Amino acid sequence: MTELSTKGKVNNAQKLHVNKGLLLFLLLFFIASALILIPSINHNVSSSMSLINSEGGKVYQNSSQYTTIFDTLKYERSIHILAMLLVGFGFLMVFVRKHGYSSITATFLVVSIAIPMYVIIKSFGGESFSKPTISIDTLLYAEFAAASLLIAIGAPLGRLKMDQYVIMGLLFVPAYIFNEWLLLESGIFKGFLDTGGSIVIHAFGAYFGLGVIANTLSRFKNDEACENDSNSNQFCLLGSMILWLFWPSFTSAIVAPERVVLTAVNTIFALCGATLATYIFTKIIRGKIEIEDIANAALAGGVAIGSTCDMTTPGYAMLIGIAAGALSVIGYSIIAPKLEKFIKGTDTCGINNLHGMPGILGGIVAVFITGQPVTQLSGIIVTLLVAFVCGKITGVVINLLGKKAIPYSDSDEFFVEEGSIDTLSTSGSSQKLG
Questions:
Q1: pLDDT tens, 369-426?
Q2: Residue 224 DSSP class
Q3: Which positions are tagged coiled coil (predicted)?
Q4: Who's near 111: CB < 8 A, 6+ residues apart?
Q5: Which of 233, 363, 203, 365 is nearest to 296 (CA)?
C-alpha cells in the first residue's frame, strides 16, 4: 500500500513537472512572438510606424482625410467585434454548469492567442500575402480568425485542459490563414463570394472543431454528461443577445463604406428571420420551447447572411434567416445525435448546427449572385476538407497532452468557492448538447 502511494506521488510530481515545462515553453514562445514585432526586427512594423509618423505631421485633405475617417469608423466596429468575442462568445459558452470559469478563461486565452499570431504570420511573406502590421484592416481580419477559433473550441468544450486550448489555438491560426489565403488571395477561386465569412470564418471553424473531436467518443464514454441549469442557461442567453446585438458590425466590418448601411439592415433582417423561425420550429418539433434552440439557432441568420450580406436585399435576407433558423433547430433536435454517431465524437456546443450547416447554406446562396456555381461550390468543399483534416491533426496532437481530470467541471484546474462546485452526479438538470 505504501509502495503504491509512493508511486502515485512520483507520478503526480512528474505530471506537475511536465505541465511546468510546457508553461515555461509557452511563456518563452509568446515572449519571442512579441520580440518579432519590434521594428528593428520586423521591417513590416518599421514601415508601418514610419508611415504613421510621417502622416502625423501633415494636414489631412481629400482622400487622406477620408481614409482617416473610415479607419476610425472601422475601429469602432472592431471594438464591437471584440465585445462579441469576449462577452458574447464567452457567456454563450457558460451554459455548461460548473464549467463557467473554464469557459470564460478559455475565451480569454484563445482570443489573446489568435489576434497576435494572425498579425505576426501576416506581417511576413510576399507581396500577395503580407498585411500591414499596424492597420485597422489587419486587426479586423485577426479578430475574424479569433471568432473562427472560438467557434472551433465549442466542439470539445468542457473536455480539454486549459493547456490544450492554448495548443489548439496555436495550431488553428496557421491552418485558418492558409485556407483564407487559398480562397480569397491565391487567385485559384477567383470570384468566390464570402464577404461576411459564412464559409471562411463560420464553416471553417465548425468543421475544424468537428475534426478535433472525431473518434474521441471512447475517451469520454464513462464520464458524466454535460449539465446545465436555469442560471447557466440565462448567462448563455445573455451571450446570445450580445452576439445578436453586435452582429451587424461583424458583417459590415470590411465592406465598402457605401454598403455598410445595406449590410447592417440585411443582417438585422436575417437575424429577425432566424429568431422567428427558431420559435416556430422549436415548438413544432419539440412541443415546447427549448432554450438551447433560442440561444443558438436564433443567431443562425447572422451566420448564413455572411456570404451575401452586402449584395442582397432585406426581403431575401429575411428568407435566408428563416431557412437558417429552421435548419439550425433541425440540427440541434434531429441531426446532432446522428452526427455524433457518425464522427464518433460529441459536439458540446452544437457548432455544426449553428455555424457549420448555416454557413454552408450561406455559401450556397451566394451561387445565385455570383453565377459561378463551380467556383463557389469548389471553395466550400475545399474549406470543409482543409478544416476537418487540420482539425483531426490538431486533435491527435492535443490528445498527447492527456485527458481533463474532471470533464465539464472547473474543480480540477481552478480554485473554487466552498460549495460552489459539487461532485458531478446524474441528479439535477442534465443535457448533452450536440
A1: 999 999 999 999 999 999 999 999 999 999 999 999 999 999 999 988 765 544 333 3
A2: P
A3: none
A4: 82, 85, 86, 146, 149, 150
A5: 233
Q: Positive or negative, the Cα torsion across 6, 12, 13, 18?
A: positive
User: C-alpha cell of 338?
Assistant: 446522428
Here the CATH number for the domain that contains residue 94 is 1.10.3430.10
Tally of structural domains, the chain: 1
323, part of any domain: yes
Q: Please give the pLDDT value at position 434.
A: 35
**Rounded distance between C-alpha atoms, residue 253 and residue 257, angstroms:** 9
DSSP letters spanning 83-131: HIIIIIHHHHGGGSTT-HHHHHHHHHHHHHHHHHHHHHHHTSS-TTT--
The number of residues in the chain equals: 434
Asked whether residue 7 is domain-assigned, the answer is no
Beta-carbon count within 10 A of 54 CB: 9
Q: What is the DSSP letter of 333?
A: I
Q: Is residue 252 part of a domain?
A: yes
Tell me which residue range forms the domain holding 279: 66-217+226-399
**Owner of C-alpha cell 482617416:** 68
Compute how many other C-beta atoms are within 10 angstroms of the C-beta atom of residue 93: 26
Task: Break the chain down into helix, strand, coil percent, rounded to 5.
Answer: 70, 0, 25
Residue 331 within a domain: yes
Residue 32 C-alpha cell reads as: 519571442
Q: How many angstroms separate the first and last alpha carbons of the chain?
A: 43
Distance (Å, rounded) from C-alpha 248 to C-alpha 305?
10
